[in-house]
Design brief:
By secondary structure, the chain is an alpha+beta fold. It has a domain at 104-307: Immunoglobulin-like. It has two helices and 16 strands. The protein has helices at residues 2-51, 223-235; strands spanning 71-74, 77-83, 86-90, 104-107, 111-115, 119-121, 124-127, 138-142, 148-150, 155-158, 162-170, 177-185, 250-251, 257-258, 298-299, 306-307. The longest helix is centred in the N-terminal third of the chain and has 50 residues, at 2-51.
Length: 317
Amino acid sequence: MLNLKAFLEDKRAILISAISIVIVIAIITSLILFGKDKAHEANAANDSSDTSSLTVSVVVPDIITDSSDTATSTDNVLHLDVGDGKRASSQEDVSEEQTVKPTDISLNKSSVTLLKGESFTIKTTFIPANTSQIHKGLTFKTSNANIATVSKSGTIKANGKGNCVITVSCVDVPSISKQVNVTVYENESSQSSIPQTGNNGSGNTSNSGKYNCGNPLHHCVNEAGHNYLVEIEEEGCPYCGSHSCPSFYTVDKWGYPIIDPTVCPQYDVKKDPTKYCQDCGRPIGSKKGQCLQFLISAYCDICGKWVEGRTCHYHDD
């Protein structure tokens, strides 16, 4: 009986020891898991703080806000307060689909006559009227800088006697371009800069006190102008071949002598290089059936094809 009692007491002690060990293991495991949870929470907090610093940008017009607003604007970028004293900025490029490109341009003058040293500014109107400002870039080029130069803003300056062409082109739509024919006369110091009046083709100028070359058909303002006209007469009219074509003896509204080919009795608009392409015979323009000749090689804004500079390009379909 005593042996059985001792045996049971030994078993009880072993059981208590085993239970104690299990409890200790459970406590240690709980502590380990609790530490891991805290570490995850700390990492999550760090991730959250990092995310709050991400920014998305949206370009917006100038914003006028009162003191109660939480949005402010600096350099057209919207800044939004996202809490904890932090600020998010956002910026989004303006989509080209929201802008309007020009389909054509018109100029205030297609031809000008200047005395050496004078200036004239080309004014351009975009079509349609709601053309976006971002697409209103223009280039101005002269065919002969010795005769006339042109600034980036379109101001022509007369440098020397002769004729040249100023070409105005759209930067974003190279197929759109217009030309201004420039005639420059030298204004000698002994001559008045006031233009003489004429009668558009017959008789001498009515202002007999000014320069008179002696030719009753001429409207020369000075000797340089007279010499230039004599050269034109020697070359002859490209339409009728005459050396005394009426187109040589016209004047503009200020009385300056100009060469107006439309006055020629045999003027043919299809032979006019400013109206029709002399290579393919098509009208010059950007519409269907018209010929485009880019000054430099470029992609056509209408069909997307690559077009070599100064070659015929048109759309028939």
